[in-house]
């Protein structure tokens, strides 16, 4: 019975802010930082080979800032989902690592942004580029764990009876 209660809690939102039952907002919101941070890396690469790298350097910096803001919003909503998990479960342990990695990624991108703000706009910051690569690698691992939470453990996924409605 205790396991059933833990599964029930993990599937239901703590607040409507986290999204309605079966349709969590966290997976939608994470697309903002993922997209902007990957795009910033692409702009860095273009900036390395462009005759005039300044627009790409500035764009990468703006994209990193947008990603940090988006990540903060996604983290708040993700934390609401996290709070629904029963401590001591495999899902809670996985979510804790997922959250720690994501907070580390946000911290690295904040440092990355500060590094870029202190640099000139006439060339891509090599140190900033390396920070982006490292942070995106950690983000990839964290994303894999997020997928495990949803697809393996069924966190914030509708129960099987609700899912079966789609196959009638």
How would you characterize the overall build of this protein?
It is a single chain. The chain has 168 residues and is an all-alpha fold. Helix content is 73%, strand content 0%. The chain contains seven helices and no strands. The protein has helices spanning 2-11, 26-29, 31-49, 54-82, 90-118, 126-152, 160-164. Helix 3 packs antiparallel against helix 4 (54-82). The protein is elongated, with a radius of gyration of 19 Å. It starts with a helix and ends with a helix. The relative contact order is 0.17. The model has no long low-confidence stretch (mean pLDDT 89).
User: How much is the radius of gyration in Å?
Assistant: 19 Å
Sheet with the most strands, sense and barrel status: none
Order of helices and strands: HHHHHHH
**Helix/strand/pairing class, anyone?**
mainly alpha
Strand element count: 0
Question: In brief, what are we looking at here?
Answer:
Helix content is 73%, strand content 0%. It has 168 residues and is an all-alpha fold. Helix 4 packs antiparallel against helix 5.
Search tags:
168 residues, mainly alpha
What's the helix and strand layout?
Layout: H1 2-11, H2 26-29, H3 31-49, H4 54-82, H5 90-118, H6 126-152, H7 160-164
Helix pairs in contact: 3-4, 3-6, 4-5, 5-6
